[in-house]
Amino acid sequence: MRLTTRGRYAVTAAVDLALHQQGGPVTLAAIAVRQELSQTYLEQLLLKMRRQQLVESVRGPGGGYALARPAEDISVAEVMRAVEEPLDSTQCGGKRNCRRERPCLTHDLWESLNVEVERFLSSVSLAAVAQGEHHDLAD
User: Which of 32, 34, 64, 96 could make an SS bond with 27 (beta carbons 3.0 to 4.6 A apart)?
Assistant: First the structure.
């Protein structure tokens, strides 16, 4: 499994919103500057998150983005799924056809890893990441 920049940037942007939206909507430019990310790429990611109703956009002066729900009610897994981040460590994409239409010897191992990663990321809220509490979850 490889975590791409798409997933990393999406989670980073969502956590930034969790940390900075108290004063109202947060602009893409502000997130881009704080996190040293491409504003154009962030725009694409936030559009996908908006379609999944994880963020809301506000137009006009003072506009920007805000989380659509409280940060404690949004999991990292939801953000990753919203931007279509693959969390699959199997060679076959879960189709069980790794070796000429049969699962490879280690298919079940990687499938189990997928389940654990999904479970972990589903258990971590944006609020926990923003508050640095996610470190304790792995213990």
Answer: 64
Tens digits of residue pLDDT in 82-97 = 998 777 877 777 777 7
Q: What CA–CA distance (Å, rounded) separates 37 from 80? A: 17
pLDDT tens-digit profile of 68-80? 999 999 999 999 9
What is the value of pTM for the model shown?
Answer: 0.86
CATH of the domain at 27: 1.10.10.10
Sign of CA dihedral 85, 87, 89, 91: negative
Domain span holding position 67? 5-138
